[in-house]
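Before the break, one more example. Copy the sequence into your notebook; we will annotate it together after we see the structure.
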Amino acid sequence: RAQNQRFLLGSNQPKTKKLQRSIPALNSPNRTQKNQNKENSHPKMTTPAAPAPANNTANNAAAAQPLASASLYVGDLDPNITEPQLFETFSVVGPVASIRVCRDAMTRRSLGYAYVNFHNVVDAERALDTLNYTTIKGKACRIMWKHRDPSIRKSGAGNIFIKNLDKSVDTRTLHDTFSQFGNILSCKVSMDDQANSRGFGFVQFETAEEANEAIAKVNGIMLLEKKLFVGPFIPRNERDSVTGERRFTNCYVKNFPEDVTDERFEEEFKKYGEVTSCKVMRKEDGTSRGFGFVNFKEADHAKAACEAINASKVFGGEREVYCGRAEKESERKEKLRKKYDAIRMERLKNNQLVNLYIKNLDDNIDDEKLRTTFEQFGTITSAKVMRDKDRPEVSKGFGFVCFAQPEEATRAVTAMNGQMVGTKPIYVALHQPIE
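Here is what the structure looks like once it is written out:
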């Protein structure tokens, strides 16, 4: 314990300049009061007092809380982080009971977060205070209390969204700025692949009252010559339903003739409102690629332009022009992924009804013999006996037969399951793909 105290007193963690120093309206309470508030705000940080200071046994019993109350969530980890590396970092604070890096069930790749369990709440609280946002393998980790009930975190209560942040603002600074308003469950500044800030972040407080106070006092203030926006966080799938429609200013236009110039393109859209930027995309030789972008100052003007120009032939030509909201690359990829997933699932669903799995085949059964055995039940589109990869002449004893119609496959299962083919009774069933 003395060694741990020396570690904490001699902590070499970098000092973070708190943003509230540059914001007169955000004067923090004194450090003593702040620490008292912090200790009282988290139910897992307090240990019930014994009725009377009888002996050390009573104190030890009071301190022996369940592991869940001394468990921490550690996020934003490097994908290659391991349990021993985390143990090396957290064991300097106090005895660690267990550490688990969460991994994908199939690939066993790290999911980027872990759970660290201490033997007592005091060590867990010390780790949260001293190690939060420290760098582990080049990435600043994010630590918060583990909640057995995920509904507290997933409900979105107390969650706020902050945008227009300066690029120099990191997660630690954001946490220090908003911690004066209450106990923070989660805090994060969104980063790109190069670890550069995207200019927005999220803070989730323990209660909605704390979140509302932060919104009231911080929204609209100037920070590093930028006006902050702070408001309640709205999940992506609920943003359109809040107002009934999605507002946008950037339009994507395609299917217009190649001879449309930038001036002609902009002139057509200026009829609907002030245009801040307009561009026809071109190839290296200067010829039009047949699509472009228009950004309006007002969302209502963009909506009016899309309604008027979409499915029209305002630029001439044979094809109707498409004009709609310009989607981000991530949105387009997500749409394509869902589209291809739906096609794949439909194929799997269809194949389940026509594809048969046959096992316990004789070693001398080949593709042709398998087809001949089942062709009496209908049209076969494929028949395959699976063979050893290294020795193609050796059968694995199972194969697949695919029929053209589900009814044909059903007749084959009913008639052939358990029948003798060669010297063995074969097993026949509808193929069940691995999920």
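The chain is about 30% helix and 25% strand. Residues 329-354 form the longest helix (26 residues). Try to locate both features in your own notes.
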